Amino acid sequence: MTKQLPGVDIVLVGFGWTGAIYAEKLTAAGLNVLALERGPWRDTPNDFATTFAQDELRYYWRHGMFQEASQATLTFRNNSAQTALPMRHWGSFLPGNGVGGAGVHWNGQTYRFLPSDFVARTHNEERYGPLPEHVTVQDYGVTYDELEPHFDFFEKICGICGQAGNLNGETVEGGNPFEGPRSDNYPNPPMQMTFSQDRFASAARELGLNPFPVPSANMSRAYVNPLGLQLAPCTYCGFCEKHGCGNYSKSSPQTTIIPVLMQRPNFALRTNSEVLSVEKAADGSRASGVTYIDANGDTFFQPAEVVVLCAYPLENTRLLLLSQIGEPYDPQSGDGVVGKNYCYQVMSSATVFYDEEFTNGFVGAGALGMVIDDYNGDNFDHSGLGFIGGGYIACHTTNARPIESHPVPDNVPSWGSRWKKAVRENFLKTTSVGVHGASMAHRSNYLDLDPTYTDTHGRPLLRMTYDFTLNDRRLTQHLTPIAQQIANGMGGREVKVNIRRGSYDSVPYQTTHNTGGTIMGADPRTSVVNRYCQSWDFPNLFVAGAGLFPQNAGYNPTGTVGALAYWSVDAIVNQYLRQPGPLVQP
Amino acid sequence: MRRLSPTLTSLAALTFICSATLTPGASRAQELAYSQVERGRYLTVAGDCKACHTDLENDGVPFAGGRGLSTPFGTIFSSNLTPDDETGLGHWTRDDFYRALNEGMDRDGHHLYPAMPYPYFTLMTRDDTDAIFAYLRTLDPVTAEVPENELPFPLSVRRSVWGWKLLFFDDEEFVSDPDASDAWNRGRYLVDGPLHCGGCHTGKNALGADDSDEYLRGGVLENWYAPNIRGGENGGIADWNPDDIVEFLRDGRSRHTAPMQRMGEVVALSTQHLHQEDLEAIATYLKSLDDQPRENQAEPDAARVEIGEAIYFDNCAACHASDRSGVPYLFAPLRTSNKVLAEDPSTAIRIILGGARAQPTEAIPSVLAMPPFEWKLSDDQIADLMTYLRQSGDRSAGPVSASQVSEMREYLADEH
Amino acid sequence: MHSLTRRHVMRLMLLGGTALAVPHAFAKEFGRGAGVPWAPSRGEIPYYGTSSDRFFTPEERETVAAICARLIPSDEDGPGATEADVVTFIDRQMAGFYGRGQHWYMKGPYGQGTATQGYQSEHPPAILYRSALAELETYCASQHEARFVDLSEDQQDTVLTGLDEEEIQFEGVSAKVFFDLLLKNAIEGFFADPIYGGNRDMIAWRYVGFPGTRYDYRDFVNHHGKAIPLEPVSLMGRPGWDRP
Question: Which CATH superfamily is domain B302-415 in?
Answer without folding.
Answer: Cytochrome c-like domain (1.10.760.10)
